[in-house]
Amino acid sequence: MKNSHRSIVFFFVMIVLAALAACGTSPQPPAHPAQAVTIPLTPIPAPPPTRTLDAYKADVARHVMQRNPERVFEGELPPMLPAVVVLNITVDRAGQLADVQVQRSRDQGASEVALASLRRSGPLPPPDGLGPEHADLMTFSETFLFGERYRFQLRTLAGPQRAGL
């Protein structure tokens, strides 16, 4: 029994010595230092600015109103609008009008003012960054809100409508 007790103690001592020996060693540096690899950094091109259709329509509305100051009215929209005209507008990549159609109107005179005002405003701002790369044309709509004497505001930029009659 003494012999087996000695064997167990000897076995544990050897394990402790092996563990201590492993802790004391440090890794040896490599025989040949590795060459530093230089990877050339090429600048990543910035993505084009993100432009939304709403932002583009606001640019177009400002453009049309600036080109037609005699037809624009300021202030709150009246509670009852004498006329509302919705136009479908198609432009090319340069902002040139390709087509303009009246989508909705009940007043021929208001339709004529809306069409003439839009045509007088051409070319419109180019629709950069909108639509697929391969598309040559883009179509959107704008609503002309008419007050008295065929003066208008554009829905994209118009403020709230006055309540009540």
Summarize the structure.
Helices cover 31% and strands 19% of the residues. By secondary structure, the protein is of the alpha+beta class.
Q: What does this 3D model show about the protein?
A:
By secondary structure, this protein is of the alpha+beta class. The chain has a domain of 102 residues: Fusion Protein Consisting Of Minor Coat Protein, Glycine Rich Linker, Tola, And A His Tag, Chain: A, Domain 2 (2-Layer Sandwich), CATH 3.30.1150. It is 31% helix and 19% strand. The protein has 3 helices and 4 strands, in the order ααββαββ. Strands 2-1-3-4 form a 4-stranded antiparallel β-sheet. A hairpin with a 5-residue loop joins β3 and β4. The protein is elongated. The termini are far apart.
List descriptors:
165 residues, alpha+beta, Fusion Protein Consisting Of Minor Coat Protein, Glycine Rich Linker, Tola, And A His Tag, Chain: A, Domain 2, 31% helix, 19% strand
SSE arrangement:
Layout: H1 2-24, H2 53-67, E1 83-92, E2 97-104, H3 108-120, E3 137-146, E4 152-154
| First and last CA, distance | 113 Å
Number of strands: 4
- Average pLDDT reading: 84
Please state the second-level CATH architecture of the domain at 53-154: 2-Layer Sandwich
Major beta sheet, specifics? 4 strands, antiparallel
Approximately how much helix is present in the residues?
25-40%
Tell me, briefly, the overall form. Answer: elongated
The CATH class of the domain at 53-154 is Alpha Beta
Q: Which percent band covers the strand fraction?
A: 15-25%
Examine the coordinates and then state which fold CATH places here, giving the name of the CATH topology of the domain at 53-154.
Fusion Protein Consisting Of Minor Coat Protein, Glycine Rich Linker, Tola, And A His Tag, Chain: A, Domain 2
Report the order of strands and helices.
Answer: HHEEHEE
> Which residue ranges are poorly predicted, with pLDDT under 50 across at least 5 consecutive positions?
none
Which structural class best describes the helix and strand composition?
alpha+beta
Radius of gyration: 38 Å
Q: Tally the helices: what do you get?
A: 3
Strand arrangement within the widest β-sheet reads 2-1-3-4
